[in-house]
Amino acid sequence: MGNDVGFRPKLVPIAVVVLLGFGLPYVAAYAAFFSSKLFHTPSPAGPILPWLYVQHAFQLLVALVVIAILKWRVPADYGLHLPRGKTYVGAAILWGAIFGVLMTLVDYAPQLIAHVTPNPGYPLTRTNVAGWLFFEGVYVGPTEEIPFRALLVTYLAATMPGSLRIGNFRMNWAGILVALIFALLHAQNFSLRAWPVALGQQVYAFALGVLYAYWLEKSKSVVAPIVGHNVSDVVEYAILFVWVAVG
């Protein structure tokens, strides 16, 4: 295990990534909140799913604006195009499905142990099922992977180069650091769930963040991270809906 020569932690790039990583979701949430007041878009006081659609739309919009600005100062390939070589889409689908099952086992471990059916918090109407499956299977990928992988990983890799090597495995440190931020954004679950479940979520969120960054780096495109993210999330929700439906 080792580092490539030339890798040095740099305070300013790390500070920028931490600020953007933790700030983007909140900026998007405030934008969505003011949109609900001014334009009567879905409100955080209403059903959660319409609100998430709006908040994630603003998150993507802000990320694209920041990428456009950063290109003037940090010219780099931010991956907003189809893969130009190996796509890693097949790996993304396979590992996404595996992690979708793993996430279900972690998130619903108490219900599995107690042999009870989980309560999703909303009735399984056609509208709710279709809305959640589309959100998790299509919408969440680009609205989270463009901000976190295309923007943050690319920026940090360009401004603070250096790779981690473990045997034949090698990837840029930027992807690992952003994966840590990505995992910590889920830390509020320690106040909402039993700590073993919340800890498990931290572990799989970090692992997924590393995988997404690896696919971005190797394919030079954000497509595989988007696909992997969508697949893992929609598999978990599909399992949940079938579980609740059959009792």
Provide structural commentary.
With 247 residues, the chain is mainly α. It is built from 8 helices and 3 strands, in the order E-H-H-H-H-H-E-E-H-H-H. Strands 1-2-3 form a 3-stranded antiparallel beta sheet. It starts with a strand and ends with a helix. The mean pLDDT is 93.
Inertia-based shape? globular
The largest β sheet comes out as: 3 strands, antiparallel
Level of helix content?
A: over 70%
The number of E-state strands comes to 3
Catalogue the unreliable spans.
Answer: none
Indicate the mean pLDDT.
93
Question: How large is the radius of gyration?
Answer: 19 Å
Number of individual domains? 1
- Report, as a whole number of angstroms, the end-to-end distance: 48 Å
If strands are numbered along the chain, what order do they take across the biggest sheet?
A: 1-2-3
Protein structure class: mainly alpha
Order of helix and strand elements from N to C terminus = EHHHHHEEHHH
Number of helical elements: 8
Estimated share of beta-strand residues: under 5%
